[in-house]
Design brief:
With 336 residues, the protein is α/β, with parallel strands linked by helices. It has one domain: Glycoside hydrolase, family 3, N-terminal domain (TIM Barrel). 40% of the residues lie in helices and 10% in strands. It has 12 helices and 10 strands. A 5-stranded parallel sheet has the order 6-3-2-1-10, with helices on one face. It has a 3-stranded parallel sheet with strand order 7-8-9, covered by helices on one side. Helix 3 runs antiparallel to helix 4, helix 4 packs parallel to helix 5 and helix 4 crosses helix 12.
Amino acid sequence: MPPLGPVMVDIAGLRLTAEERERLARPLVGGVILFTRNFENRAQLSELTGEIHALREPALLIAVDHEGGRVQRFREGFTHLPPMRSLGALYRGDPEAGRKAAGAAGYVLAAELLAVGVDFSFAPVLDVDAGVSSVIGDRAFSSEPGAVADLAESLVAGMARAGMASVGKHFPGHGHVGADSHVAIPVDEREFGAIDSVDLAPYRRLIAKGLAGVMPAHVIYPRVDAESAGFSKVWLRDILRGRLGFDGVIFSDDLSMEGASVAGGMVQRAEAALDAGCDLVLVCNAPAAADTVLRQLAAAPADARRLERMRGRPCGELAADGQYAAALRVFREAFA
């Protein structure tokens, strides 16, 4: 069977159309990212993920942005997860209680997604909040690098216990720029030393613990490299792979975002991201552009060893999972 490709795409609705089945069968596709529009209820979502997984061998990876707070794609039938800043607030008063709650939140997040066939979530946010980024804001655990690292480590460990790999974002750090890369091209003027001592601290900790995935920011750090981080060999190959020793999957952020426009048209964006060191590039909310990429992009298959780390571990019914019940109890007690 052909290996998975280096492009992750989305779908329009609650069920696959014939056109989408054809698109997902293209060799360059390696995964599918789901959004709120793809969710009606747990039974429907399980049916959808089952159909996607059955299309290919090896099965396509299925991902979602499911962090908690304002970025939680599935709501009804899922535990409402607070913004990560809530864990940071708990940690400030009692670090051990914060770490315990973060581990429980990670288990609940992962177990609930795995039970409906989702392989992984693009979480956690490792950005250090400097109080200037509205698009990050309460998605960040804290303004303190040590607290971010502590809480993220616990959350990632909880997700791993449930059987799910994690993706740290937005490398090297989105917390010090005010512009939203969805609609603008953010620029961070800090020197590398300032970024290294603050923003890279959580990545160092999590990479040493075996972090499986990283998503770079659509942010330009001109004092380090003229290219946006997601298109930068300096950031991805020299610093992330080389200096930090990361050997997991590098996912581009959505190439349809305005912050990615610096690299040209959609095919050029995909080429630039892959050339810089990304393993899998995301093309979201633009099916015509995705089809163009799948027709015109000349790219090798994705690294099968790395991608396999992102595959969720099959799990049974949540009602029969004693660890889930215990984690849910700890989580609810922390945020009662």
